[in-house]
């Protein structure tokens, strides 16, 4: 499990190397928390340990701010040398599916070792070659390993929250496998049978994960209510606290690993916002966050039980976490469901109305009918792009060249980053097979 945790963090180590020293802050917090958990009654020593951890964190921040100006002078030369020295360490993964798709990612020694022994084009090579799928695979191994440990201690201690979280972790492993399959399949190219590609699998996986999380949260609440009615008490509280704390740390590894895929970010003048459009990674992030919430509920209930024994601490904490999981899953289900139904966002609908109003001003165009537009999420590009596809029926003037009108309309939409199939008919020739024949300004 330690090796798997290291591999997951290595896939995105920058999350622990921020200007605010997130990794150091997490270590200091864990130091202070551990001193409280294992010696809650010795308040002077606990307070001193927490104060020393806080002073260490503040001291490192101060030292970093003082040395930043000196290190900035040498950063350019170091980055240039580093780039040339490690150029050969980058892995180029080529997918031969009728075209060549290049993914330029820096991999760990272990990943490079596995890639060297995988046949190019195989399933394992496809998983290890992509950063997202690689992180999903590593965390699945880590999550499944700790699930076995948590199941044993949950059965021994009789913790409702820990057993429920174990069952949830098992289904999370299944959800991670489904998400892994969607992440790999979404990179497959188009074909005559799949002209729009497999990119919607990410949306479908996110929608399924969101529905599953909502159902799981309802199940958590139901089991918590049963625990309240039966009056189940916790046993082996100290061991339970240790296991739940370790489970929380495992889930924190997942949150750091998938946090980049969930949150968009903007560095300077360059747009790197590429996380909000991937519902698959969003769903996986919420699964990991739900696991972290379940572990946190067990931690809180055990600490409160050590402070003042009461059988309701565990079910009440479970209910609170379940409600938070449900509320977090609702936006994912709503957004992914809207994409599956090809719903046009409000801001895009306003732009489409303006584009259609200007369409009649083109030379040779007298009107249009039955416009249909939708988003296409192309996952072959890095970052994935959002293109607008559509079809429209255009009426041409009697004296106009229909082929010239068609090319003019297609070029007009291409300038707006819209790929539209245009059907042209001369004005007054009757109704077309698509149901047109009457000028319209409605968008669909």
TrEMBL record:
Q: Which GO terms describe its biological process?
A: intracellular zinc ion homeostasis; zinc ion import into Golgi lumen
Record carries keyword Transmembrane: yes
Q: Which GO terms describe its molecular function?
A: zinc ion transmembrane transporter activity
Fetch the Pfam families from UniProt.
Cation_efflux (PF01545)
Q: Which InterPro entries match?
A: Cation_efflux, Cation_efflux_TM, Cation_efflux_TMD_sf, Msc2-like
Q: Where is the signal peptide?
A: none
State where the protein is found: Endoplasmic reticulum membrane; Membrane
Cation efflux protein transmembrane domain location is: 138-341
Q: Which SUPFAM superfamilies match?
A: Cation efflux protein transmembrane domain-like
Top-rank taxon of the source lineage equals Eukaryota
Membrane topology value: Multi-pass membrane protein
Q: Which UniProt keyword terms apply here?
A: Endoplasmic reticulum, Ion transport, Membrane, Transmembrane, Transmembrane helix, Transport
Q: List all membrane-crossing ranges.
A: 40-62, 136-156, 168-189, 201-222, 242-263, 284-304, 310-333
Give the record's GO CC terms: cytoplasmic vesicle; endoplasmic reticulum membrane; Golgi apparatus
Family the UniProt entry places it in:
Belongs to the cation diffusion facilitator (CDF) transporter (TC 2.A.4) family. SLC30A subfamily.
Q: What does this protein do?
A: Functions as a zinc transporter.
Could you tell me what this protein is called?
Zinc transporter
Look up and give the organism this protein is from.
Answer: Aureobasidium namibiae CBS 147.97
The record lists the lineage as:
Eukaryota, Fungi, Dikarya, Ascomycota, Pezizomycotina
């Amino acid at each position: 499990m330690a090796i798997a945790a290291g591999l997951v963090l290595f896939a995105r180590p920058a999350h622990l190397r921020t200007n605010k020293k997130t990794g150091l802050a997490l270590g200091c917090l864990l130091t202070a928390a551990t001193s409280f958990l294992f010696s809650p009654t010795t308040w002077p020593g606990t307070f001193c340990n927490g104060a020393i951890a806080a002073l260490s964190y503040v001291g490192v921040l101060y030292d970093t701010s003082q040395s930043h100006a000196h290190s900035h002078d040498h950063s350019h030369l170091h980055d240039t040398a580093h780039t040339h020295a490690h150029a050969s360490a980058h892995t180029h993964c080529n997918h031969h599916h009728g075209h060549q798709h290049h993914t330029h990612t820096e991999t760990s020694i272990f990943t490079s070792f596995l890639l060297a022994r995988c046949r190019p084009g195989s399933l394992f090579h496809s998983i290890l070659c992509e950063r997202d799928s690689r992180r999903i695979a590593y965390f699945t191994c880590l999550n499944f390993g700790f699930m076995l440990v948590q199941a044993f201690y949950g059965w021994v201690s009789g913790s409702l929250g820990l057993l429920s979280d174990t069952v949830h972790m098992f289904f999370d492993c299944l959800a991670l496998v489904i998400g892994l399959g969607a992440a790999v399949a979404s990179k497959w190219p188009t074909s005559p049978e799949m002209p729009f590609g497999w990119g919607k699998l990410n949306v479908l996986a996110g929608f399924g994960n969101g529905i599953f999380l909502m159902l799981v949260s309802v199940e958590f609440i139901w089991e918590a209510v049963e625990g309240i009615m039966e009056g189940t008490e916790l046993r082996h509280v100290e061991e339970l606290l240790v296991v739940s704390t370790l489970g929380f740390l495992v889930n924190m590894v997942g949150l750091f690993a998938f946090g980049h895929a969930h949150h968009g970010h903007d560095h300077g003048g360059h747009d790197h916002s590429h996380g909000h459009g991937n519902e698959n990674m969003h769903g996986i992030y919420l699964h990991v966050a739900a696991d972290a919430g379940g572990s946190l509920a067990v931690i809180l209930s055990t600490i409160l039980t050590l402070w003042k024994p009461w059988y309701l601490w565990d079910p009440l904490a479970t209910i609170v976490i379940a409600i938070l999981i449900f509320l977090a899953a609702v936006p994912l289900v709503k957004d992914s469901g809207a994409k599956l139904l090809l719903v046009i966002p409000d801001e895009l609908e306003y732009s489409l109305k303006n584009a259609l109003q200007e369409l009649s001003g083109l030379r040779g165009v007298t009107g249009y009918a039955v416009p249909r537009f939708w988003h296409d999420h192309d996952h072959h590009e890095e970052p994935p792009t959002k293109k607008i596809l559509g079809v429209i029926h255009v009426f041409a003037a009697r004296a106009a060249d229909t082929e010239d009108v068609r090319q003019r309309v297609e070029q007009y939409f291409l300038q707006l980053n819209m790929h539209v199939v245009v059907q042209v008919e001369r004005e007054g020739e009757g109704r077309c097979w698509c149901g047109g024949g009457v000028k319209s300004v409605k968008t669909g």
